[in-house]
Amino acid sequence: MSIPIYVDEDRRIEVMELPSECGICHKNIYPKYLTGTCVSGSLEQGTNMELVFKCTNKDCRSLIVGYYNNKNTENGD
Ligand SMILES: [Zn+2]
Fold it and tell me: What's the superkingdom here (predicted)?
């Protein structure tokens, strides 16, 4: 099951999975998506996406950066 999210304000992509564990507190969390960007500017040619999430553990609240490429995203358009 893919999860639709928006990067670069209005570009809809779908990712196959979200981070399930925070790298700081090591709790299993459902991350809150904050923002993301398409690093190389194109969804073709091995695009790298960087997606920023926030840990939902109230004692942590760390940011989590997920790195994706077009092998685990789909262009939702
Ligand atoms: Zn955390």
Answer: Bacteria
Cross-strand partners of 50: 37, 67
* Distance in Å, CA 16 to ligand 1 centroid: 21
Closest CA to 15 of 56, 68, 52, 54: 68
Q: Which of 67, 72, 69 has its CA nearest to residue 15?
A: 72
Confidence grade of residue 31 (pLDDT, cut at 50, 70, 90): very high
Cα(64) to centroid(ligand 1), Å? 8
Measure 53 CA to ligand 1 centroid, in angstroms. 10
